[in-house]
Design brief:
By secondary structure, the first copy, chain A, is α/β, with parallel strands linked by helices. Chain A is built from 15 helices and 16 strands. In chain A, strand 5, helix 8 (about 210-220) and strand 6 (about 225-230) form a beta-alpha-beta unit.
């Protein structure tokens, strides 16, 4: 992953420590079942704090190299092949079929805000993981200093656009504040971009599986989608994408290269580069959804597709909804030559994004608080993912496969083929457990035996019980 | 206007006082040029406070019955016919023509937030007229009491929907909280509704002139609009609408019956009823934009089109952007049988409207502060409108006609035919005065010599100077 980070971002200390350990494993110096040095020993050996040593071990645990045993320490894990298997890649010709996900979507909207449910469903982390206290302090001060914050239109606060531009360096492509248009979340950014670059009836290429919001927004704009088979680690099958482009005059392609929703991968740089070059060759606009990009577990900021763009054909959409708070609804788009068109569409749809939330986010970014918060969040999500993966492996039927995310807080779970995920979704809701059925992630009814699990919450006995219940329900949902 | 109010709203005291005065004018007891009783005398005669007496006189002034003379009192005005003429109704066959308003819209987006400009352009009142202090107090308390306000999705706060439902009584049609879906402003409500009820290529009937956001949002969804000639007081020509429906399979009709933007009228009840019945007869959905409906100068809440709806074919869209603060971006829609479809589209576009702003608005409504605030705003806007009308009449060329709004804070100004409003718009911007050219309010390039003037600001010498400059620029913009 090191090569993915632009040279401006030094690799964090704890990762360099972790590298030493993985090298010892690959060289055979450490073998499966061996106990690794205690935190105190490691700290002394490498001249780092015990916190850094712990960070390194937790990261290694999250990636499956180490396992912790209660009151005993960290051990090298059994070889990778014996670990929880990941979902399989099964390329399949896309048959355009009619599928109605409206009822499920309406369900989700009704149920999502029900606090009685164990929330494995929606794609937001748990409220207690967000820096609400700090954001509220900033918010209250801004309200004191700018009493008429709400009485002004703001088509994008200067200070927020400047902060976003400053952070863009770490993604491999420097943006200027003028490049950035503020939106009400990343999904609005994608919606506006689709309307700017394509028309009803146009064909949009999407990953398969992909975030259901992308499928829904394209469908609501009466655009056709063609699903490109997508490998759980390598991303879209570029041969299939090229064939689709040749056969269907594809207008745009929506891609999530970093911490994919739902697959969890961060694409290797060569795959990012190849995708962008393919888009450029056929003059297909690539709409990049980078909304989980700040949540890479490695601690380095992965490069965006935009950073490989030489022809102004990648439009970058992102937001702070996954890292700061979903309720702020502050997103943005760097729309390049479509900048004015996107700004007009924004003005004609939601007019403006509330100024207050923009000012709060800008100040949190400027204070450095955002970076410190991200580090905590990355570590936390890496641990949560591992805990939830283990629990699923324990409780679910033989044959279940679970993604191993490189970032974010979403797991893609492939159940045995006999399980009907839609039935499971409904049975789970009856038990006040919300999950998402795989069919939502396809426009052609694929992923009938897949579910998405949000692991962005402090893992508790209630979560463990809910996963155990889900595992039992699998057998009844066939 | 009394008949427009449902029986549950008693006519305010000051209007009943004002009625007495207008009766005396119509009976001839008071004639043009007569001085009316002083505030003290009137208060004593009618047994009301001097404040109520002043309210009555200011309202009479705003409607053109009285004029105030400095240090002398209020006088009955010269007969109506000699007053400032209102814009004319010139029905014209709609020729579909291509017109590109993109450049002007992009200008507006760039210039609108420039505080250096005298803001006669955008449709929001001046920040100092909004209850920022009170809203901020509520906001700060909510942040204290609900520290994680921003970490939750909210598809419409229960408390806000309850408050909106309670207020609906006064509009002649009781809604239940469940009928209401919260949106990010009324324009999003209209956008979502259009997507729910119509498809690209479908024909939408609109008033002419109409709010440019409606034209823009329909165009961006690749829907066709047909402009229905619209009378400055009586609204859409229903014969023309019926003909359009018969000839073009119109899918929906967007109408603003209360405090029309830009014409300023409140439709008489019989016109509202006739429009709704026409829609029902042809199964055309009527999308009602009621965003200025709370700003009727008469102090009674005018009825909505929705209140005449017997067939669930009126969808009511509104917001608090014109009355509380544009930056809150809290709107709503009562979408009837399209409720679920609209909620899904909302979820697939901006996901949710921030909870914090919803809670603030809900509490301000519940406290009764909103009603008190509205009363002040209505009176203020009525006065402002009259002041700006006078100043325009003084400074603009002979032949200028100005609307006499029944509510809101927008004036529609018809300039002599030789004036090119687009040139005037550009020349004004050079002098840091923002206005809107009439062409924005038509999809077919009509209203070349009309402009819209926002008079929702405390009238100051700077505004007077700006109007004087505009008047001079008219002669050079031919």
């Amino acid at each position: 992953m090191t090569s993915a980070a632009p040279s401006s971002t030094p690799r964090p200390l704890y990762l360099r420590i972790a590298d030493n350990v993985t090298q010892q494993v690959s060289s055979g110096a450490l073998r499966a079942g061996d106990r690794v040095p205690s935190l105190r020993q490691l700290g002394r050996q490498m001249r780092v704090s015990m916190t850094t040593a712990l960070q390194a071990y937790l990261w290694l645990e999250s990636r499956g190299y180490l396992e912790s045993r209660p009151r005993s320490g960290f051990y090298v894990r059994t070889p990778f092949a014996k670990l929880i298997p990941e979902p399989q890649f099964r390329p399949r010709k896309t048959r355009p079929t009619e599928i109605d996900t409206d009822a499920v979507l309406s369900d989700i909207i009704e149920e999502a805000s029900d606090p009685a449910n164990i929330p494995f469903g929606l794609g937001s982390a748990s409220p207690e993981l967000f820096p609400s206290r700090k954001l509220n302090l900033i918010l209250r001060r801004i309200v004191r200093e700018h009493p008429d914050h709400s009485a002004r239109y703001d088509f994008g606060s200067e200070s927020l656009r400047r902060q976003i531009a400053r952070r863009s360096l770490a993604t491999g492509r420097a943006l200027s504040p003028r490049d950035v248009t503020i939106t009400s979340g990343a999904l609005e950014a994608i919606n506006l971009t689709l309307r700017a670059v394509a028309s009803p009836g146009d064909v949009i290429a999407v990953e398969s599986p992909t975030f259901f919001g992308i499928l829904g927004t394209a469908a609501s704009l009466k655009m056709k989608v063609i699903e490109i088979p997508t490998h759980p680690q390598e991303g879209m099958d570029l041969n299939a994408l090229e064939e689709a482009i040749r056969r269907h005059r594809v207008k745009a392609c929506i891609a999530m290269a970093n911490c994919h929703n739902p697959l969890g991968y961060v694409l290797p740089d060569r795959a990012k580069k190849a995708l962008v070059e393919l888009g450029a060759r056929y003059e297909v606009i690539i709409i990049e959804d980078d909304v989980y990009g700040d949540l890479d577990f490695s601690g380095s900021r992965p490069r965006t597709l935009k950073s490989f763009d030489r022809t102004e054909s990648v439009i970058l959409c992102s937001s702070f909804s996954k890292t700061l708070s979903p309720g702020y609804r502050v997103g943005w788009v760097a729309a390049g030559r479509f900048r004015d068109a996107v700004a007009r569409l924004k003005f004609l749809t939601t007019v403006a994004t509330p100024s207050l939330s923009q000012l709060v986010v800008a100040e949190f970014l400027e204070s450095g608080g955002y970076d410190r918060h991200l580090k905590r969040l990355q570590l936390m999500f890496a641990q949560q993912a591992e805990l939830v993966r283990k629990a699923i492996a324990n409780h679910f039927p033989e044959g279940t496969r679970i993604s191993r995310p490189a970032g974010g807080h979403l797991l893609w779970v492939e159940l045995p083929a006999r399980v009907n995920a839609l039935k499971l979704y409904r049975a789970a809701l009856d038990k006040h457990i919300s999950i998402l059925p795989g069919m939502l992630f396809s426009a052609t009814g694929r992923f009938e035996h897949h579910i998405r699990i949000n692991c962005g919450a402090n893992f508790s006995p209630a979560h463990e019980r809910a996963l155990s219940t889900l595992g039992r329900l699998c057998e009844r949902s066939t």
